[in-house]
Amino acid sequence: MPRFNRKDQHILIGLKQKRGLADFSDIHFIHNCLPERDLNEVNLKTRLHGVDLGSPFFINALTGGTPLAGRINAALALAARECNLPMALGSQAIALENPAAVNSFRIVRKINPKGILWANLGSYATLEMARRAVEMIDAAALQIHLNVPQELAMKEGDRCFRGALERIGRIAGALSKPVVVKEVGFGIAREQALLLLEAGVAAIDVGGRGGTNFLALENRRSRRILSREILSWGIPTAISLIEVLDAVKGEAGVIAGGGMCSSYNIARALALGADAVGLAGYPLQLILRKGPRALIRAIGKLEEELRLLMLMTGSSSLPELRRVPLVITGFTREWMESRQIKLPESR
Ligand SMILES: Cc1cc2nc3c(=O)[nH]c(=O)nc-3n(C[C@H](O)[C@H](O)[C@H](O)COP(=O)(O)O)c2cc1C
Known about the structure:
TIM Barrel; two-stranded antiparallel sheet
């Protein structure tokens, strides 16, 4: 199936999917009744790829390449500009193959001339493709996505996954911009995070299970070829975050992605040690159902609630939030014990 049809089908089927929420219910804050902080001084500043950001949120890779995708990108770009958030674009492979698709990506730069934009390609990308994708939108970084289960669930998807790590290493070593590797909803484990770190990536977006489910989505598109229990494949976002943080130990940025749309979960992810939080399915559904103003309001609410939660833990900055005590229970605790992962004292 041509990429054009697939892109729009992802959006339309994704819109019908019940929106998933990452499960952080095993991560507990401890209320601080003497925070000794002023809400007006609580700031959400973070640093990613060597760049200071006013807030830890960003709009994660979604789309591009078709007229519908171009209109969605324009609406997302407007919201990103108003909220001063970085925005990653959907895979640009389609525009590298077909110049007619370029405008559906460049529109984002037109609407947000000074914004932070991130380019996006799959792990099939060569250095030459990476350079062209970055140049197309004057990107500050390149995301490379990993999506093996999705490809396997697509009738027309890839079947050979050799050479990805080597290509990532080559791009990370030679591209003049930071390279971020991301999953699209199946999570990243400690072992592969270590390989990516060695390959020289600047950050890892865990893209864990809980939000957009590409196995369910592709199953629907290809009229159900996989059995039900396989559809819940993947590492949940909170657990993948703990795995990747344990591997990376501060040597690369770590991004929480996959079903992130509640301020409480975002606060928990940041307290565990995430440097930033990527939102994809949530902004897409808001844009399609209610428009960019609704997304701007939703981001404002997330930021406001995050500040309240931080104050209630006695933190006025993200580095302080990372030092608050956490209690980890249930399945997440068992997973950590089984994998011999300890949450570091200072995260
Ligand atoms: C319709 C749709 C299209 C997507 N296209 C891309 C893409 O082109 N490149 C990519 O890296 N991720 C893509 N993603 C994955 C998201 O960036 C994100 O990693 C994933 O959806 C998990 O986050 P979420 O649960 O917040 O949606 C797409 C997601 C959706 C919903």
